[in-house]
Amino acid sequence: MSPRPSPTSPTRPPVRSRRGAESVPTRLLLISDTHVPARARTIPPAVLRAADAADLIVHAGDWIVASVLDELEEHGDVLGVWGNNDGPDLRARLPEIARREVDGIRLAVVHETGQAKGREARMDAAFPGTDVLVFGHSHIPWDTTTAGGMRLLNPGSPTDRRRQPRHTYLTAVADSGVLRDVRLIEL
User: What is the pTM of this model?
Assistant: First the structure.
């Protein structure tokens, strides 16, 4: 079996889900801050089932151990970044910022965006030409749209809820340039 192309490879083609002869919408799983094994021993089974159902798994950093990246790669195509708690092994394999076109949507992923106050304006300035920005770090689910029209999504954490009532992740569908069916899933 040949190795998968690097998630940051400039020659990697845009993600388009193809089942059969015609293009169909791309199913996304958005997760962050898994903190395995610091906060949980493993990725929850529900998240792994969601990974199996997704066409693209997006992870916004704080994996903690590279074995989590390896495990998710066994379940599907992964686009991820390193977070502030990730060591040299993950930083060697992942970028700080990842970008990819997914079924007509210009997607960017970063771990940290700073404080909530002023986030929309800062991200518009930092990520021009981006349709959707997935981020993590706070463990707080977030779904807003900036004045420039960029969708900001933080899936929370499926393993470390901190001050949140539940562990969470997001699913969404990229469909011909439109992000739809964004759902916050509570564990």
Answer: 0.87
